[in-house]
Amino acid sequence: MALSEIDRNLIQRCLARKPKAWQNFVDRYMGLVVHVISHTAQCRSYRLTPEDRDDLAAEVFLALVRDDFTVLRSFRGQSSLATYLTVVARRVVVHQLLSRRTATPLSQGEFEAVEQRDSPLQQAADREQVEQLLEKLDGTEATVVRMYHLEGKSYREISHAVGMSENSVGPTLSRARTKMRRTGVDQTTGNPQ
């Protein structure tokens, strides 16, 4: 679906800082953002309070206005604005949930499981397994996976470091994950996953 004339005008008005343009933008897309927040949290098994939801919505809209609307200026109009905002909102929400890790209080049993999983010994074993899987990828894919998953780099940072377009980082990660899943071995059974 292509960019509608209404959305094109709304973006132009926001970028030109016209009166009430941002308010109209937020009114138009608040429902979508809240839906993306709820869906993303549910998919990642996070229970959100209304305050968490409000904070995440604020983070999404803050990401849109940050650096003089850089995210909106980057929109090329090759999809609907709703599709673009869904992707942006999901990335912001996932990043926030991962950085907070406090949206859902853990029970004692859950806490002990996380504590055991995140022990230095387990982290070293996990990293070693990831390094073995990375050896099965070609150079660029391995670099992208290492930078994203092990070093916590953003798509933009990876793009600059490896010389690929920012829009190519996600598909590269997806292909690499598929290859890693195919070649991965369950450490407990020795059977292919």
3D structure, described in words:
There is one protein chain. The chain has two domains: 5-100, Rna Polymerase Sigma Factor, Chain: A, CATH 1.10.1740; 108-183, Winged helix-like DNA-binding domain superfamily/Winged helix DNA-binding domain (Arc Repressor Mutant, subunit A, Orthogonal Bundle). 74% of the residues lie in helices and 0% in strands. The chain has nine helices and no strands. Mean pLDDT is 78; it is low at 102-125 and 185-193.
Low-confidence stretches: 102-125, 185-193
How many runs of DSSP E, i.e. beta strands? 0
- Structural class by helix and strand composition: mainly alpha
- Count of all domains: 2
Approximately how much helix is present in the residues? over 70%
Distance between the termini: 37 Å
Q: What would the average pLDDT be, to the nearest integer?
A: 78
Mind telling me which CATH architecture of the largest domain this is? Orthogonal Bundle
CATH topology label of the largest domain: Rna Polymerase Sigma Factor, Chain: A
For the largest beta-sheet, the strand count, sense and barrel status come to:
none
What's the Cα radius of gyration? Answer: 20 Å
CATH superfamily of the largest domain: RNA polymerase sigma factor, region 2, helix turn helix motif
The CATH class of the largest domain turns out to be Mainly Alpha
